[in-house]
Amino acid sequence: MTKKPEPILPYVIAWLVLMLLLGLSVLSAYLDLGFFHPFVNFGIAAMQAAIIFLVFMRLRGPPSLKWVFAGGGFFWLMFLYGLGVIDWVTRSGFPSQ
User: Fold this and answer.
1) Is 97 within 8 Å of 91 (Cβ atoms)?
2) Are 42 and 50 within 8 A, CB to CB?
3) Which of 80, 92, 94, 10 is nearest to 52 (CA)?
4) Over the range 49-81, which residues count as b (16 or more CB within 10 Å of their CB) and which as e?
5) pTM for this one?
6) Tens of pLDDT along 48-77?
7) What string of DSSP letters covers 47-92?
8) Model confidence pLDDT, tens digit, residues 17-55
9) What are the residue boundaries of the structural domains of the chain, listed by start?
10) Alpha-carbon distance 67 to 73, whole Å?
């Protein structure tokens, strides 16, 4: 029994959307958005991550064991980012400028 090949169109569309979001990210680096600059960049990054999770990691559809491992990986990534932020916030002793 031969397996039917997957359609390539969703992957091409996802790649094109990711390239568009990359361009928006680069463009936002040169724009003066003031207070909203981090929010715009985090929003773009969240959309890119969602596309990668849903399309390339094949997390669409009903919950399965893949969701458990993806959630665990995301939890540990946030845990490590949190530790890095805590380290950066609590450091002292740098020479003042």
Assistant:
1) no
2) no
3) 10
4) eebeeebeeebeeeeeeeeeeeeeeeeeeeeee
5) 0.70
6) 998 998 898 888 878 888 888 888 988 998
7) HHHHHIIIIIS---SS--HHHHHHHHHHHHHHHHHHHHHHHHHH--
8) 999 999 999 999 999 988 888 889 989 998 999 899 889
9) 1-60, 62-92
10) 10
